[in-house]
Amino acid sequence: MNAINILAPRQKDELHKSILAYFNSNGLPNTCAALRQELGVGDEFLDDGKMKKYEGLLEKKWTSVVRLQKKIMELESRITSLQTELDSTTPTSLIRKNADPTAWLPRAPARHDLAGHRNPVTSVAFHPVFSLLASGAEDSTIKVWDWEMGELERTVKGHTKAVLDVDFGGPKAAILLASCSSDLTIKLWDPANEYKNIRTLTGHDHSVSAVRFIPSAAGEYLVSASRDKTLRIWEVATGYCIKTIHGHADWIRDVSPSFDGRWLLSAGNDQSARLWDASTAEHKATFIGHDHVVECGVFAPPAAYPYLAQLAGIKKPPPATSSSEFIATGSRDKTIRLWDARGTLFKTLTGHDNWVRGLVFHPGGKYLLSASDDKTIRCWDLTQDGRCVKTVTDAHNHFVSCIRWAPAPAKEPLVNGESKVNGTPNKDAAKVNVRCVIATGSVDMSVRVFAS
Fold this sequence. Notes:
- By secondary structure, the chain is of the alpha+beta class.
- It has helices at 9-25, 29-39, 48-54, 57-87, 91-96, 305-311, 427-432, and strands at 112-115, 121-126, 132-137, 141-146, 151-157, 163-169, 176-181, 186-190, 196-201, 208-213, 221-226, 230-235, 241-246, 252-257, 263-268, 272-277, 283-288, 294-299, 326-331, 335-340, 345-350, 356-361, 367-372, 377-381, 387-392, 400-405, 437-442, 446-451.
């Protein structure tokens, strides 16, 4: 049976000579001689100069073929993802997609892939003013990056065990960085003074899983969640613990304050999330329905109220000044659940193939984004009954452990009362005031920045 010749004579000659050079350089002189004889290649080929020309050629071609195959597979996966996105797009959103930041969603590849940590990344946090991003990791360090340039600014050391969470906040004139750790401490660092450790807060009896500054004009408090089953509220200026909140029956994994600092949402291993009054520490509601550890919980921003009200079957959306109307929780049961403030579950979002580790609402209000141990970021459209309209597959090479949205750039001074404090800004102001940047951290030890 005759073989089909797909190589030109010159290509065949080069292939034969590459094979001969491969045999020769790998200590197979007899095989080389036998093939040379069969191919009718003369002794002149054994000349060092000619042999050198072909040495390594076969290996180079082989590795480049493997590399190209991998690239083809990546591109095919990207095409599938884009096709899914296209199939889920409405004509209106397609037209507005590039112009409207409230419709922006992250897409692969990431703008920056920030490598430097030596162990899994547990947390990320954006500076409220500058283009700085902090990441905490199990290597017990915090790294501060310039997320616009994609460069490492500095490494902050001080914790003796894994850093489990980081957050920027505090007084507006003197923004601080807070971190918490398995070493049972919370530390405050001063970015204005080369990230000097200005205070260490002690009091928890086990790993401190989460830390957040509580929003307020003076920025005087922060809240922490711990494996010791408590939440603690601390005074930033003195480092004193002013309240200890009991209620969870197991490890508290996450805590999140409402945008006005009035409410706290906690979630944990007892498969529940709880709502608290931040000023009185009074328990307001319990959210029960998940079948496994609740990893994360977030308050919905007022911009999402019209869409969530519709999903919940409420005719009139709550006022934008109210800060705890709806919440979302993510769990190891692979689901995301949407609740009203009384603890009523009104929607369950399914689609992730592994633990849901992080949640963030799109500042525009129409989408909820989730990060998961299935290595994806998923975007859920609240205007389409919570349908998953976009999946960023392989957002990381391993479990995605955290996700944060960059805060909006500072607003220009408003003229003639164009907007209200804590009210709903006019539509144009809202559009301008969305920064299309998110950051994620992963067990692959990297931080990734997705941006428009």
